[in-house]
Amino acid sequence: MINLILFGPPGSGKGTQAVKLVEKYNLVHISTGDLFRSQIAEKTDMGMKAKAFMDKGELVPDEVTIGMLKNKMLAHPEAEGFIFDGFPRTIPQAEALDIMLADSKEEIAAVLELEVSEEEIVERLLNRAKTSGRSDDANEDIIRNRFQVYLEKTAPVAKHYAKVDKAHKVNGLGSIDDIFERLVGSIDTVLAC
Ligand code: AMP
Prior knowledge:
By secondary structure, the protein is of the alpha/beta class. It contains nine helices and five strands, in the order βαβαααβαβαααβα. The chain has one domain: 3-Layer(aba) Sandwich (Rossmann fold). The protein has a five-stranded parallel β-sheet with strand order 2-3-1-4-5, with helices on both faces. The model has no long low-confidence stretch (mean pLDDT 97).
């Protein structure tokens, strides 16, 4: 099994690259943001609870997010590996994921950290808002809050995996294909070891 974490601030290109990586490595894509958005569209209790946090650019509480992630993984016993996009976003989420994988004698192979500056993120997300329809992309204050939350709560997750030599920084600027090539280069190096 190959389990990868696609890591980086909101708007760093995780979703776009995940779709391409899923195809190349035959993985199941899990985006917690997408899962929350479908809960919201279905107007479930979980969706309504999550929406209040998402609208402010805050994180949905760990117990809700981890429970949802576990259910999604359990729904794919056939998976040859997972690509986690937007998860884990806190240290407790990373610890829960490590335990879940260890329970089935699996582990994270690599964390690929897309590096993009705050100013570039603001520009990209304001642009994305024109087509994504996402209210959390349309407001600069909310975008900057999401970036701050990333620095405070999510960036430590990369350090957690760096301690076990699993974190790999990847330049997140350039064309979609250039970034994809860089990611594939990092992943193939890890898989060759
Ligand atoms: P994303 O689509 O990954 O940018 O996520 C959109 C929003 O969903 C985030 O700003 C959070 O409010 C929420 N969210 C997504 N994934 C997580 C997570 N792993 N932990 C907590 N909140 C999350």
